[in-house]
Design goal:
Blueprint: E1 2-5, E2 12-16, E3 21-24, H1 30-40, E4 49-51, H2 57-60, H3 63-70, E5 74-76, H4 78-88, H5 96-115, H6 126-130, H7 150-154, E6 162-164, E7 171-173, E8 176-182, E9 191-197, E10 200-205, H8 213-218, E11 224-228, H9 233-238, H10 243-250, H11 258-267, E12 275-279, H12 288-300, E13 309-312
Parallel strand pairs: 3-4, 4-5, 5-6, 10-11, 11-12, 12-13
Antiparallel strand pairs: 1-2, 2-3, 7-8, 8-9, 9-10
Helix pairs in contact: 11-12
Bound molecules: zinc ion (2 copies).
Length: 324
């Protein structure tokens, strides 16, 4: 497991066996992801697929460009893919005055076309005008320098290929067996993953409002566990976020606090991991020392868990690859 970035400004992790490599989430620009992979000694050309947990921007910011550049498939649940496509296809709502203008313009164009003997196209109809999608492309400084075909430029939601998986149903990419599990979070169909290959099991569980029984079950017998420890409750309460955002973070579909993570480690965790990586730490509402302390205290009551090494994933730089 190589955590390239973790936090509310971008998430991305490489999971690999000796034969297969997958990128889980692409929440930084393609250029930044490439840079971080180089720093961590990971070869982007060796990636076999990209796997997406949910459609929030901090998990998909570089997805389209990255997948097209590498020409690799992207694995989503179907609702998450649809939500991502909607996000990538901005639609503009016309005001009544703008709509009338547009209708008028089209009328004139039809009249002109008719005068020249051409058939008016069906796309010129008034209903099409109302539903007119904004044709302005989403600007992305990471579009590759070599020009892509016009079709791709025009459609930022195009991907080399898309594969669907279902939460709760195991599937494989190469020799990595992947079990996605549903997490409680305010996205359309968010999930965490358990990865198994060559006798080792790794899991990734961030972006969850609380620890439901299915997640506790999924996180058994894991060798490397990337687990959310998002915020310190006091720092969040006194912190800079508006009240509505604080409510969202604290809700059952928000993020795990240091306390909630510690409670899981103390009460439900089976202690099997060699490495626990605390991730998705909030930069505004947490301090790495607080997250570490809470987790260490939770484990300290269990002498058999002292072999667990706790690492802190970072927003600004990749972690050293964790190898088993
Ligand atoms: Zn997130
Ligand atoms: Zn999220």
């Amino acid at each position: 497991m190589t955590v390239l970035a973790s936090g509310s400004k971008g998430n991305s992790t490489v999971i690999s066996s000796s034969r297969t490599r997958v990128l889980v989430d692409a929440g930084l620009s393609c250029r930044e992801l490439m840079k971080r992979m180089a720093i961590a000694g990971e070869d982007p050309a060796a990636l076999d697929a990209i796997l997406i947990t949910h459609e929030h921007q901090d998990h998909v910011a570089g997805l389209g460009v990255m997948a097209r550049k590498l020409g690799i498939p992207v694995y989503f649940t179907e609702p998450t893919h649809r939500a991502w496509v909607r996000m990538m296809t901005p639609r503009r709502t016309l005001s009544y005055a703008e709509w009338m203008d547009q209708v008028q313009r089209e009328k004139e164009e039809r009249a002109r076309a008719a005068a020249q003997g051409a058939e008016p196209g069906i796309c010129d109809s008034m209903s099409a005008a109302v539903e007119a999608a904004s044709s302005e492309p989403v600007e992305d400084p990471d579009e590759p320098e070599t020009p892509e075909p016009a079709r791709v430029k025009a459609d930022p939601a195009s991907l080399p290929s898309v594969e669907y998986f279902l939460s709760g149903r195991q599937f494989s990419i190469g020799d990595i067996e992947i079990t996605p599990f549903t997490i409680p979070h305010d996205a359309v169909d968010p999930c965490g993953f358990v990865f198994e290959a060559e006798g080792a099991r790794m899991a990734l569980a961030t972006d969850l409002g609380y620890m439901p029984p299915n997640v506790k079950m999924a996180l058994k017998k894991i060798d490397v566990l990337l687990l959310e420890s998002n915020h310190d409750l006091e720092m969040l309460k006194d912190g800079p976020y508006p009240w509505s955002v604080k409510q969202r973070v604290l809700s059952r579909v928000g993020h795990l606090s240091n306390l909630a993570t510690a409670e899981f480690l103390e009460q439900d965790y089976d202690g099997s991991a060699s490495f626990i990586v605390l991730g998705h730490l909030s930069e505004s509402n947490n301090a790495p020392e607080l997250a570490r302390l809470a987790a260490e205290q939770a484990l300290s009551g269990h002498p058999k868990l002292l072999g667990n090494r706790i690492l802190l994933a970072e927003q600004g730089s990749p972690l050293e690859p964790i190898c088993l």
